[in-house]
Fold this protein.
Amino acid sequence: MTNVILFFTLCSIDHKLLYMQQTCIHCGDIYRGRTDKKYCSSSCRSSYHNKVNYKDLFPLKKINNLLKNNYKILNQLTYKNKPVKTSKENLVNAGFNFNYFTNTFPAKNGQTYFFCYDRGYLPLDNGLYSIVVKRELMN
């Protein structure tokens, strides 16, 4: 019987030692929690990691935003997923950046389609571009 009481007492002491008063490494607030806990809340944990990873992720976010913008412009120009012709001037005025695309696709005539995801363009003569949806090319 004394062994059971002694075991229960040790477990209670260890349990109390695991939950201590600590300081959040992001905001500096004091909280009670496990000894291995570093943040007072999940929002502090997320904010801390976003801050730490910002320098590494910023170039990716910038490129993804440019690709999304290009996709949005090409998507607005497509009508019922059929090829449409437009001028380079219209694309540039809409904010299209020709330096950013996700992949290329060879045309039957030897030219190259440039794609932002499934929306693409093919340079034609006289500064015109054919705006296409990739599904059309795969059939």
